[in-house]
Amino acid sequence: MSADERESGPACPLPVASSATIRLAHGGGGRLMHDLLQDIIWPAFANPAAETDCDSATLCLPPGRQAFTTDSFVVRPTFFPGGDIGKLAVCGTVNDLAMVGARPLYLSVGFILEEGWPVDDLRRVVASMRAAADAAQVQIVTGDTKVVDHGKGDGIYVNTSGVGVLEHDLTLTPAALQPGDVIIVSGDVGRHGMAVMSAREGLAFEQALESDCAALAAPVQALLAAGCTPRVMRDCTRGGLATALIEIARTGGARLRIEGRAVPVTAAVRGACELLGMDPLYVANEGCFCVVLPPDQAERALTVLRRDPACARAVHIGEVLETQTRGQLWYRNELGVDRILDWLSGEQLPRIC
Amino acid sequence: MSADERESGPACPLPVASSATIRLAHGGGGRLMHDLLQDIIWPAFANPAAETDCDSATLCLPPGRQAFTTDSFVVRPTFFPGGDIGKLAVCGTVNDLAMVGARPLYLSVGFILEEGWPVDDLRRVVASMRAAADAAQVQIVTGDTKVVDHGKGDGIYVNTSGVGVLEHDLTLTPAALQPGDVIIVSGDVGRHGMAVMSAREGLAFEQALESDCAALAAPVQALLAAGCTPRVMRDCTRGGLATALIEIARTGGARLRIEGRAVPVTAAVRGACELLGMDPLYVANEGCFCVVLPPDQAERALTVLRRDPACARAVHIGEVLETQTRGQLWYRNELGVDRILDWLSGEQLPRIC
What we know:
homodimer; alpha+beta; Phosphoribosyl-aminoimidazole Synthetase, Chain A, domain 2; 2 domains; 25% strand
């Protein structure tokens, strides 16, 4: 168009509701994108703090310290037993905030959609995000939507960033570890990874596998409210429990040891792992964390955690043997033999979150 | 692996520096991912507030109101005249914060990398982000990296979210428009879109086309410091100047009018647009915004804005004719004929940012 032949684009485009699939124009900033936002995204995320007429949300955070984090989600498939990419994106970022002891307050959401993806799937994801946000008591206040050409994405990728407030004076860091500290894991391990794996490969196991995907802010807040003073917490996502503890050990310059038989693993996960030759200690979780704290707080921490349904299987699995040393995670197997666990090179399952 | 045959993965994997391309394992949470972070990402973004040993950054924001925003970037190609996806991602989010009058402080960055993409390109993008962040006086404090299979991405997608502080009491909203308010555009329009287009299509024009990609926080802060009280500001990204003003008009229920001959367009952009049949008013910018303010502030605003190199061509292009009415953007052409401008259905150029 020249400036003097300017038109308003194709006459009367179909509203988004009648477009069954995502089109490039849904990310173009024009009428179709406005329809997409107005029909699907704004209604689902409506809340008092949300921006609709500008590109930033205005917050009024209490004074003090805040936590800020980001995570992108590329899980395949989009929908899996126990969750979907939307629930995962909300819980994952809530959990990153929770692991520094923050109370999560606000989330942003960025969608990268692939041309040709069903609009109804977007509705499902958005509804799932809203439900997960409500459950975790966080508000989704700002967002962005981009569309990429067919063959340059995989249906949907989601980024969530989060802001929370620190209502305590603790500095949670692996550097704070002390000899004798106890290691607690909040639940059984490996469920998320094996549920995604079974959905991806179309495997049916005797016992159903469901992701453990859950927000962990409430049990962490309960822990702090009960006067526990964790040295460090870590959610056991990519790379599983072993990777989380190895990171803590290396960063903190500490020798940790866990007891193999103490680590909870469901029969379903154990069976699937054995069949596929995988190690549940390295399989991703999305609703499970490890916490290290002083030994005299272990019982109190377990009592408090177990009150939360997501942490009902919380258990003491090991301890800090030595600090100011070379960071290592030791593993005691059923025969009482100790061995060092190391990072895997990559991960057993790509695109798990 | 069974629990009793656990190994530490392939012995002594190559450090990331010697891997020429991104591999799925770079996103797996294990050793290769740690190497990628340690070799490339943490050194580039190092700053006092950055998290390296946990998944959230701890901030200490001044009391008052804050702004929070997010944007994903999927521009194709990754590198274009005048910028790249990294500079764009920093400037874009800085500008979203600037448009509500916030002083941008902290950014997060989320990478979605495609298997097989050159690691050296990641180095370039990361260095460009650091330079853009330094120039805009923001700190990149938290991040995340995911890798998707070859054929499920397009080299790199970047999400940046941002937190800033509001150091004024204004509420910038289209609802604040008053009849007689003036409309200023901060620079010439259409450069980003046409530069990306020329790079994408391998077009060579007589005059070089460079993106206007730039951070706008400094000129906006200068405007506020000079006592200007904008009603509303909007950066002219996807959909260009026309789409930004149509959104303002519709949201604010106001009739705006701009003068076609007042809108600055470089000869290079004009020539390229004529050749390709595009309208510069609808072509994306990444370093250009429009601001509406009371008429008695127009001269002061222009003087202040023009001191900033990114806004040297700032000019008065129109006014608010009427409020509390049906929101419309009118355009007066060279012959003095007025016409309504409407949203395009999508956008003339997909994947421009």
